[in-house]
Specification:
34% of the residues lie in helices and 24% in strands.
Length: 470
């Protein structure tokens, strides 16, 4: 095996949420003699510590992924590894697997190289800190020189260039703000924190997408089948159903069978009051991204070659790809039998879906708990609500602040008879997109149902959602 590339004197840093406990990716940027940008994505070398067939490896495969619940993490690997030896902690020498990608001024990748390395992360930044640097500000706690700040901004500029190229190729822009549950000391939900999907998050995502693509392309085009991250294009029937649902919201999306039309449509609804509802509807019309040992391609990202490489601490497919890339670089046998890949792909896709469902249920449970406590305390909070859909029996509304939906029953909207118009999906003048203020009236955590009532019936007019002048 070749000696590791020593990168300990390079300016390499991590960028993660404030609450992050393990750090499996770091970044660097340099320029070659022609001025081309060389982006370095350095990933924790988990494969150095977790050997195939070992007890830890067998358990990691069984779990498939780490699970991030509201009040705890169920890690894929032992804590000593995921939060210790494998974690790219600042100020510590750490083993890494580095991907170096050279980009020209147009953002085209002209070269890709890979190497086992040893790094020494110079700093651990949060998204908020990096965002200040990107915007040209400063943070006294960072203690960064001009060169380091310039590097961060250059990486962000490259990321935005790569992002623009993806969308021009037909990638789907479905990012929504990340809603995190905040807990008190007793483990009860204290509130929700909405983290915007800003340039700092986009910087990390684009760098990881580029590294994942580079590794997948290198192996797949050289005849090495891998656990690809496969995302198939949606069925025409599903898209037609989506168009019908969108028309019910008063939205005219156009022919969604064309990826670029789809992308343009998603851009036009960014400021729509029901954007998160529409985004959820779009996601439901899509096929799920899965792991596949036979097919390659990612519709949502508009990538021909794509696999997971950048999170081996928390995903087993990434660890598998690390091992294959290492064997390929050393001239050994990097191939995995097709039946084995097929079996792994099925198992790991299932484990991922189970984890995603558990994480959603964990968040939803805390939201219902919060509303139950609020209802029991009789100290009701007024929430801004947006009508999602009208039915003969009432209006389903969304509370953006809580990212939950519930029903405002027709009897609480008016003491008068309200006629439901099936043609334009309105109820006594109320329609999708209307706004009103509501309070919680009932919570059924078991059945996942919430009832809301308007703050005061006479304060609102359908179609405007504003208070009447008195």
């Amino acid at each position: 095996m070749k000696a590791r590339l020593d990168l300990r004197k390079k300016f390499i840093f991590t960028c993660d949420p404030v609450s992050a406990r393990d750090y499996d990716d770091a970044l660097s940027l340099e320029r070659d003699r022609r001025g081309n940008r060389i982006l370095g994505v350095h990933i924790a070398d988990v494969s150095h510590f977790v050997k195939p067939g070992s007890a830890i490896d067998r358990e990691a495969y069984k779990r498939g992924t780490s699970v991030y619940l509201c009040d705890r993490v169920i890690p894929m690997l032992p804590e000593k590894l995921c939060n210790g030896e494998c974690s790219l902690l600042p100020g510590q020498d750490r083993l890494a697997f580095s991907v170096f990608m050279t980009f020209d001024r147009n953002g085209e990748m002209t070269k890709r190289e890979f190497a086992k390395s040893v790094i020494h992360s110079q700093a651990r930044f949060t998204y908020e800190q990096v965002m200040k640097v990107i915007k040209g500000g400063s943070d006294s706690s960072l203690k960064l020189g001009r060169r380091e700040q310039k590097t961060i901004r250059a990486i962000s500029e490259l990321a935005q260039q790569l992002r623009a190229k993806r969308f021009a190729a037909g990638a789907l822009d479905l990012e929504v703000p990340d809603v995190q549950v905040e807990l008190d000391e007793a483990g009860n939900m204290a509130g929700l924190k909405v983290t915007p999907y800003d340039e700092s998050h986009q910087m990390i995502e684009e760098c990881m997408v580029a590294a994942n693509e580079a590794v997948a392309k290198e192996l797949w085009t050289h005849g090495v089948k891998i656990l690809a991250r496969y995302h198939e294009s949606p069925d025409p029937e599903k898209l037609e159903m989506l168009r019908a649902e969108l028309r019910g919201l008063g939205v005219r999306p156009g022919n969604l069978e064309h990826p670029k039309v789809f992308t343009q449509f998603l851009q036009t609804i960014k400021r729509h009051p029901l954007y998160s509802t529409i985004a959820t509807m779009v996601l439901r019309s899509m096929k799920k991204a899965v792991y596949d040992g036979e097919r390659m391609g990612h519709f949502g990202l508009a990538k021909r070659y794509y696999a997971h490489f950048t999170s081996p601490i928390r995903r087993y497919p990434d660890l598998t790809l690390h091992r294959q890339l290492a064997a390929y670089l050393e001239g050994g046998n990097a191939r995995i039998p097709a039946p084995t890949l097929k079996r792994w792909a099925k198992h790991l896709s299932e484990k991922e879906q189970e984890a995603a469902e558990a994480e959603r249920e964990s968040v939803d449970d805390k939201k219902y708990e919060l509303l139950e406590r609020e209802l029991a305390s009789r100290c009701l909070i007024e929430y801004e609500a947006v009508v999602e859909k009208c039915m003969p029996f009432g209006c389903f509304v969304q509370i953006p602040e809580l990212a939950v939906s519930g029903l405002v029953h027709v009897r609480s909207l008016s003491h008068r008879f309200l006629r439901f118009n099936q043609y334009d999906q309105t109820l006594g003048g109320w329609k999708a997109g209307d706004k009103l203020k509501v309070t919680v009236a009932g919570v059924n955590r078991t059945e996942r149902k919430i009832d809301f009532v308007p703050v005061r019936e006479n304060d609102f007019r359908p179609g405007k959602g504003k208070r009447r002048r008195r």
